[in-house]
Design a protein that fits this description.
This protein folds into 2 domains: 159 residues, Periplasmic binding protein-like II (D-Maltodextrin-Binding Protein, domain 2), CATH 3.40.190; 102 residues, D-Maltodextrin-Binding Protein, domain 2. The protein is built from 10 helices and 14 strands. The protein is elongated.
Length: 300
Amino acid sequence: MKPRLLVTSLLVLGLAACGSTPESTQTSTPPSSDLSTVKKDDALAALLPPEIASAGTLKVGSNIQNPPNNFYDQDGKTPMGSEVDLIKAIAAKLGLKAEHSDMAFSSLITSLETGRVDVTMAAMNDTAERQQKIDFVDYFTSGITIMVQKGNPQGVKTVDDLCGKGIAVNLGSSQEQFGKEQSQKCVAAGKPEVTLSVTDSDTGNQNQLRTGRVAAILNDLPTAVYVAKTAGDGQYFEVVPLAPINGGPYGIGVAKKNAKLSEAIKGALQSLIDDGTYDKIVTTWDIKQGAITKATINGK
């Protein structure tokens, strides 16, 4: 068994990605996806731009501080996470090795457009606005998830069960917006409103939930799953098993001038879905709720 992992992350994305990253200290033994069975597909590799094929490397731009999507192992140098496993598998399917560059989230699209990296993969939502600049190969559906105390003592099973209860959300997040909308729906249905506790601290939100001051925390799907799995060695929280609320796709960003690369990545992803490797990865990281069955470019 590996030594326990210490992870410290920052709130960085707000409305840009669906939620925030956990800032509290979590302890767990990091999982690992077995990618040894992934073999090169010559037909898909033939779609690669010649300069990438000859280099043998897929340069990946990421913002490596967002567990379980991407974060550093205990050595502080080795990227790991569900997205890291998936892009490694995609690269292997194309006969390449993935090479990560850690950079600010705000610089990812520019780095892609200028050719500093070949692709981006950093829990970036595929949106119509971003599609004006780059293309996306969609690989996951994220959205808002409800996290409750272990054992779900207040019986929160659907969004309607939030009526009359307190929930914690991050300031300026899509979760705050959804909480306000849900409160209005509760009142319109003749039920008590939702009481929002809006903070800029994931640690504070978790403390509120642990002590029963709120009934639930709303957060992004992968983040909520990771916190529930690692906080207190998995003894503090659990995620309500619902499909992502207001779900939207995460996409691998590709420059528009590299349409063939987009097609190659799409084909590799679909192959991984079909042969079960994709399912293995999302199962390892406990994020099957957001799994897809069909690889698409810009949602098509």
